Amino acid sequence: MPEVVSPEKWIDPVSRKWPSIGFLYLLLAVGSFGVFFSWSVRVGWYERIHTSAKTMDDHIRWASYLEGLAGDISGVSKKTAFYLDAAQLREWAGQPAQAIAVLERGLYFLPDQTAIRSKLFELYERSGQKQKAVNLTHPLFSGGEQRRKTVFSLLVDAFGHNDPDFVNRLTEKSVSSLGDGRTIAIGFGSGMWTVDDKPGYLVVPGFPDKRLSQDLFLSCYAGDSDLPIIVTVTGEREKLVHVFQERGRVKITLPSVAPGSNGLFMITTDKQWVPSDNDNRKLGVHIQPTD
Hints:
This protein is an alpha+beta fold. The chain has ten helices and ten strands.
């Protein structure tokens, strides 16, 4: 009786071998060329944006790109332009709420830019947010003597009730920005140090519609013989205390500022220290924004 051969034995063993390495490389090369070709002929949003072929999605991508640039660049004029352009693109893309968010972020970092304030006021009015529009007229966002008077008035109400000389001492102090584009500093010495056993003051304008939690760095580099040094941050309702057992820097979060109000803080130390024989300033702590 003839032997029955199974179907598997009919297959030539050579045909069951894996493809050669050379063949796999050929497939990889062909596939890579196809991917490269499709990429090279594709038109990106950055190429369409100035043509009639641009889409709403292109506007959104461009807005996101400009928002990133605004966060990275340091120049005030360019930063302002990027925020304004990004907001305009969000408007064109049918995203008014996002446009407002972009300008609110811009105003946080650039409170003195009237162009941002004006555009934000327009969007608030157009969207029916009347109270937010009113909040934009806050005098702390204006410059010059008006801001100085407003700041002094706020500090007197908060810390100067029982001190008849408080106003006179304040008038000797300069009003400056802490460097974060929002916080106002009064009574600090060169380099933003508390000096000569005198307090420094911070005024933090709050957001119009949400609470603001402000972070700060406090630094002290006193010698071992002067440590520990206690720093106290006094708000209208709360106090924060930190003891520098050793020289260094610490990050603190100020008590939160309620919507539509201002955070008022006094910073003092329990003792002073002198940096060196060549620098006989009587220092306390150094303050610095975290951004």
